[in-house]
């Protein structure tokens, strides 16, 4: 019972007193310097009469540590994709500048083609930097590649996608974006 517990010394102790009273099912975690304990109380009410509670303790220290690691790794991966995208956009901008300075039409077109290729890879990395995993909704990427190629193409070009690509792994999405860029610009 509550009277049998040690006097409360703070918010955690007060929560333990409430939990141990066992009048309603409760669950919470207690975090200390050396770990995290999950506490779960289940009221014991045989024949409707409250006689106490069953208190279950589970050490979730390792689980919480792994969760924090995953969050950190996820943030790191997203930041890497974001930086790769920025670097690719810088390369594309440098190629565009060089293309403007070219006297040769053939050389200018070759550099513009390289800009489109780099741009399609940047689109994939931008999409990856916004998602939590290494999988992307490729329809969004396809639509952006289509718009990018149509924007750069000579004359008025309009395109539309029919059907769906679905969700793809990054290792498939990047080369597929490159192939799509090649097919669209040819």
Give an overview in words.
The protein has a 3-stranded antiparallel β-sheet, sandwiched between helices. A two-stranded antiparallel ribbon has the order 4-5. The longest helix is centred in the middle third of the chain and has 41 residues, at 61-101. It starts with 10 loop residues before the first helix and ends with a helix. The chain is 58% helix and 16% strand. The protein folds into 2 domains: 2-59, no CATH class; 68-185, no CATH class. It is built from 5 helices and 5 strands, in the order H-E-E-E-H-H-E-H-E-H. The relative contact order is 0.08.
Task: Provide the succession of SSEs.
Answer: HEEEHHEHEH
Number of strands: 5
Mean pLDDT: 79
* Ends apart, CA distance between termini: 79 Å
The percentage of residues in β strands lies in: 15-25%
Rg on CA atoms, Å:
29 Å
Strand order in the sheet with the most strands = 1-2-3
How many helices? The count is 5
| Global structural class | alpha+beta
Short description:
58% of the residues lie in helices and 16% in strands. It is of the alpha+beta class.
Features:
186 residues, three-stranded antiparallel sheet, two-stranded antiparallel ribbon, disordered N terminus, alpha+beta, 16% strand, 5 strands, 58% helix
Task: Lay out the secondary structure.
Layout lengths: L10 H11 L4 E6 L4 E9 L7 E8 L1 H41 L3 H25 L5 E3 H15 L14 E3 H16 L1
Antiparallel strand pairs: 1-2, 2-3, 4-5
């Amino acid at each position: 019972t509550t009277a049998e517990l040690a006097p409360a010394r703070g918010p955690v102790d007060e929560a333990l007193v409430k939990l141990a009273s066992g009048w309603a099912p409760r669950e919470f975690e207690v975090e200390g310097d050396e770990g995290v304990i999950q506490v779960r109380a289940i009221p014991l009410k045989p024949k409707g009469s409250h006689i106490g509670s069953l208190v279950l303790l589970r050490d979730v220290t390792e689980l919480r540590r792994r969760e924090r690691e995953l969050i950190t790794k996820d943030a790191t991966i997203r930041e890497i994709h974001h930086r790769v995208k920025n670097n690719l956009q810088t390369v594309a901008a440098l190629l565009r500048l060089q293309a403007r300075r070219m006297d040769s039409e053939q050389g200018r077109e070759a550099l513009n083609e390289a800009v489109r290729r780099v741009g399609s890879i940047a689109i994939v990395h931008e999409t990856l930097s916004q998602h939590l995993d290494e999988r992307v909704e490729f329809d969004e990427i396809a639509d952006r590649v289509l718009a990018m190629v149509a924007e750069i193409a000579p004359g008025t070009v309009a395109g539309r996608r029919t059907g769906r690509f679905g969700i793809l792994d990054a290792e498939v999405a990047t080369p597929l974006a490159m192939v799509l860029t090649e097919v669209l610009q040819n």
